[in-house]
Amino acid sequence: MTINKLSLINFKSHSEVSFDFSPQINCFVGNNGVGKTNILDALHYLSVGKSFLGNSDLNNIKLEEDFFTIESEIQNEEKEDIIKILHPRESKKVIKKNDKAYDRLADHIGYLPSVMISPYDSNLISDSGESRRKFLDAMISQTDSVYLFDLIQYQKTIQQRNALLKNFAKNRYFDKDSLEIYDDPISSFGTRIFEKRKEFVENLNPIVQYYYDIISGGKEKVSVVYESHLSEGFDSAQPDSFFKHLLAISIDKDRVLTYTSKGIHKDDLIFEMNGNSIKKIGSQGQQKSFLVSLKLAQINRIKELTGKSPILLLDDIFDKLDDTRVSQLIELVNKENFGQIFITDTHKDRTENVVKRIHEESRIFEI
Asked: pLDDT by residue (tens digit) across 296-312?
């Protein structure tokens, strides 16, 4: 799938702008603060319906304007689709495909898969488990609509259980039977999520190592370790029962904390190099190479599982890697037929030189 055209109105810093894209490489060049990353964020919106920066939709409406729109023409095999995102300031966001609005955002996820590589990726190593968990969920959700449904239902049920625990504490009473109503749905949804996360990470690991070897030229062994409360005693013969056991033995603790302390909503990914935390022993260069390898593995898995080539969004990639490494990265992506590429950079000459080395069709837009 490729994005042929993109039009923005009142999106972040852009009042009105449009682009006709190359099916291969597209570069946005200009000084800092001119809105290059905002264009990549608009492309990310087309993919998953929200900002990759975590901004609320209302904060993406240009100051003093009443709405934003993102509209695109997407080549989907033999036909063209029109995807339009409209967000008025006074009402909810609407996503339309060929003038028909989606009933739920989840129905759009996976239509146009994407992978973003940006300076913010370093947060995956330095931040809490929540950011890594969200990253894992985003990867799998683009390939598995059932997983996304289970995840949404699990999160809703956990919120309801937590609200009941807070209500118990506030009113100084406790009803165990009312709390146990949530055990079955939490265990059922959570177990399926756990099994898919475990399988996904297992299949991801050799691909991460493959790309790390190419990018770094190093001999380090890198891996992604999936940590979960369910791993501590999971019984594949009776998967739901173990989750219920975790909930049961944690009731007293949950009453004190007023939230559910055990479950797959506490899962984490540990990034390792030679069996140790890459956060502790990895150099800055090794960490950057690992993160790029992780994102390339993500592209590989999405393509393998869906048959679609994700769009690749490279934000300030020269901040992560030197010119030679950037050339190697883009050549590798082209060689693997990973799909359409979008790049931002502050130096036009540098970008042009990298693109010329690759000899692929490209367009450079000065912002």
From this structure: 999 999 999 998 889 99
pLDDT at position 239 is 62
C-beta separation of 338 from 117 below 8 A: no
* Other beta carbons within 10 Å of 238: 12
Classified as helix, coil or strand, 31 is coil
Q: What DSSP element (H or E) covers 75? A: strand 67-76
285 phi and psi, to 5 degrees?
A: -65, -40
Measured N-to-C along each axis, helices 183-216 and 129-141 cross at an angle, to the nearest 10 degrees, of: 90
Going by C-beta distance under 8 Å and a sequence separation of 6 or more, which residues neighbour residue 186? 154, 157, 158, 161, 243, 247, 260, 263
Confidence of residue 286 (pLDDT cuts 50, 70, 90): confident
**Which residue shows structure tokens 């030189």?**
353
| 3-state class percentages of the chain: helix first, strand second, coil last, to nearest 5 | 50, 20, 25
